[in-house]
Structure formats: C-alpha cells, structure tokens
Amino acid sequence: MLQLTYVKPSVLEWWDVPQVRLQNAGDAIIRPLAVTRCDIDVLIATGVAGFKGPFALGHETVGEVVEVGDAVTLFHPGDRVLVPFQISCGECDRCRSGQTGHCTSVPFRSSFGMAPWSGVDYGGGLSDVLRVPFADHMLLRQPPNLSPSAAAGITDNVSDAYRSVAPYLKSRPNARIMIVGGRAQGIVLYAVDIARAFGAVEVIYVDHDPDRIRVAKDLGAIIVERNVADGGPSLGPFPITVDGSGTAEGLAFAIRSTEPGGICHRTFGAFEEVTPVPLRDMYTIGVTLHLSRLNARSVMPEVVECVSHGKFHPERIITRYASFEDAAEAMLDPTIKVVFCRDGA
Ligand SMILES: [Zn+2]
Ligand SMILES: [Zn+2]
C-alpha cells in the first residue's frame, strides 16, 4: 500500500509499505478520505521540528471504516468516522479521567503521523488505509451534515483551538480576548472564530503575516499589525490572552498583556530544551499560564456538536484544497491550512 513518508527535511515521498491489517480484535481499518495539515506538520516537513525520518505523516483524519475486528461493536464497514490524532485505550485511569493524551496502555505521546515522539509508527492519514486500535473508544461518527474536509481538523487543531478559548469564555462571558499569531497559524485562526462564537466582545489579533491577518479580519477580529519578536509595549490588559507565536518573545508579550488574575493560554509547546518565561511579570500581574498537549478524544465530542450545529466554521480557515496525489508538494506549501482530499471525498 502507499503511504506519504517524511524522509528528510523538505523531502516527502509516497512509499510502498507493507499492507496494514487488523492486529487485535478491537482494531478497525480506515480508508482516509480527508486529512487536514496540522500546524506542526509543516514544521516537521521542513525540518524545523528536528524529527528524524523516515516515518508516516498526517494525523488529522476523517475516513471510512473498511474492516473491523471481532470485538468492535459500535462501528461497521461504510461508517464515516473522525480519528483522534492520539492513541488512547479509553479504559486506563488517565483515559477515564479525561487525560486521553496520556493513556498508559500505549507508549508516551503515541500518535498517528509522528512516530519519533513515541517510538512507534502507527501510520499516517495520508495512506491507502490506517489501522485504528481501540476503535470502539477512539472513533467518533462523522455527522452527515459535515463534509470530511470540514470535519478533519476536529481530530486535532480545531479541538486544540476550542479548549484554548471556549472554557475561559464560559467562565468569563463578554471578555475581551487577545490572540497572538505565529507558528500555530491554523489553531490561532480557529481560535478567533471560536472566541467570536462564544461571545467575546472583542477579539484582538496580533500578527505581521498578511495572509493570516486577512483571514483573521474576515473572521471579525480587530487587527494589530505587529511582529512581537521586535519587542515593543504590551497591549490591553486583557482577561484572556492566547499565544500561538511559538516563540519566547510572543509568550512574554502575551503574559505582559494579560490582566491581573487573567489567563494566558499557550497553544504551542517548544522545540528548544528551555524557554525563557517572564516570571517576574507573571508573579506581579498574577497570571495563570496554561499549556499542555490537547486531550483530543475527550474534547472532540463537544467540538463535533458545536460544528455540526454551525456554531463556528472550521472550513473558513482552509486556504488550500489539495489531492492526495499532490500531498508531497502541498505539505510544504507555506499557506495557512491545507486539506488533502481523496478523489471524490
Ligand atoms: Zn497535530
Ligand atoms: Zn488509556
């Protein structure tokens, strides 16, 4: 079978790899129909993430079930499903408490499309078929009113954006919110849309990239055109700030723009070993900084519900529709959000 493989920086190839088959009774085999490019994929593909190839790429997947193991009871061939990017069993203590990104039944950070993180290659969404373990727990049904391309991002970046603003806005209705753009380029724009949907009175979007600014403006954000890496005074203060810059400068800017007692959410981890954090300002302002990997499977049902009822619209952030055949080239496109669609999907 064919699989898009990250070989080395800026070299992606379709490799012929051994056919994926059911391994356990709880597995399902999925034929991917649409895969969105996660913000980290472009950083992996261009070598910024420093991951060593070869491994399968792509982890925001919607597909069709083609085969299920004997123990799978909730899904059948032909069902259209969303596949959370992280592998989780649904039964360990962490999964039961909602920490599905930290399942103890599989190696730490087990995910599709990012083998170096866990040491296990679970395959990627850009392939003929994908094996999904713990299928009854993992999979979510695709609502009939959503297209695969609109639903795919919910398996990672859309849900990540959702939890970076929606819970805070629920406890602080009518808040003003500031979002800093950058490396988490799709997530921050989803966050703009979601913040508006959840009643933020103003969404201030800070960035210097003209394409992202254009999308944020279309979504109703108030634009502050600035490269936070250049320094300069803070804004606000705001009760909620989101840093998607992926840089230490962006994080410091967001923290300093947060109101006393406010929340700063960082949507991005870090590639460097140590990142400076302005603790003096955090301490004196009294900022709660939140950052963590998403627990995809736990958050997704709420997000599927919102999107299927039209509360916000992930497809508004998509800037390129590409075929699977064009994936090796399109994965490297600097555009904001790519969706790869199998023919006819
Ligand atoms: Zn991702
Ligand atoms: Zn588990």
TL;DR?
The protein has helices at 39-45, 93-96, 115-118, 135-138, 148-151, 157-171, 185-197, 210-218, 248-256, 279-285, 296-308, 327-330, and strands spanning 2-8, 11-16, 28-36, 55-56, 60-68, 80-83, 130-132, 140-141, 176-180, 202-207, 222-225, 238-243, 258-266, 288-290, 320-323, 338-341. By secondary structure, the chain is an alpha/beta fold. Strand 15 (320-323), helix 12 and strand 16 (338-341) form a beta-alpha-beta unit.
Model description:
By secondary structure, the protein is of the alpha/beta class. It is built from twelve helices and 16 strands. Strand 15 (about 320-325), helix 12 and strand 16 form a beta-alpha-beta unit. Helix 6 (about 155-170) packs parallel to helix 7 and helix 6 (about 155-170) crosses helix 11. The longest helix has 15 residues, at about 155-170. The structure holds zinc ion (2 copies).
Task: Please outline the helices and strands.
Blueprint: E1 2-8, E2 11-16, E3 28-36, H1 39-45, E4 55-56, E5 60-68, E6 80-83, H2 93-96, H3 115-118, E7 130-132, H4 135-138, E8 140-141, H5 148-151, H6 157-171, E9 176-180, H7 185-197, E10 202-207, H8 210-218, E11 222-225, E12 238-243, H9 248-256, E13 258-266, H10 279-285, E14 288-290, H11 296-308, E15 320-323, H12 327-330, E16 338-341
Parallel strand pairs: 9-10, 9-12, 10-11, 12-13, 13-14, 15-16
Antiparallel strand pairs: 1-2, 1-4, 3-5, 3-7, 3-16, 5-6, 6-8
Helix pairs in contact: 6-7, 6-11
Bound molecules: zinc ion (2 copies).
